[in-house]
């Protein structure tokens, strides 16, 4: 009988060692009623689509921020539904390699070395653009910007304007640029 009890205790002890660590608070299965934040959250009620271009150079090593792209509501819905591409997202950042050759494009000169960073997480609201992504060249990339709806409305009426509509912080290539100012352009 004693041997049977010791064997049962040994089985219980071994099975306890194989259990997974408990889930983090706020994660599924943790028993918490607080939901984990969505990786891709879009709650803007107005049209924020367009290209957000730096008012002044924003650099991370040899790379310069070219623009922050924000798509239309339908592109956010498709992304959230899982219809994704390896080259396009409803929010993405594009950089240019300042050491690469220049070429003439339909909108002026541009460097041939381009880097597009797709999101691993984003939140877009009427007054905020938050982005997180990764690239082999820059490592972790994030942008957190506050959107000025009044300035955006003026820029849209004028089909683009030199005034800043977003002010935020960019982290890329192990560097942080605060006070990044972006103007709006609707694109081609």
Characterise the protein shown here.
24% of the residues are buried. The strands form two sheets. Strands 1, 2, 3, 4, 5, 8, 9, 10, 11, 12 and 13 form an eleven-stranded mixed β-sheet that branches. The chain has a two-stranded antiparallel sheet with strand order 6-7. The chain folds into two domains: 1-34; 40-185, no CATH class. It has 188 residues and is of the alpha+beta class. The protein has helices at 2-17, 73-80, 149-157, and strands at residues 40-42, 50-54, 59-60, 63-70, 91-97, 102-105, 108-111, 114-117, 119-125, 128-135, 139-147, 166-172, 175-185. It is globular, with a radius of gyration of 23 Å. A hairpin with a 2-residue loop joins strand 12 and strand 13. The longest helix has 16 residues, at 2-17.
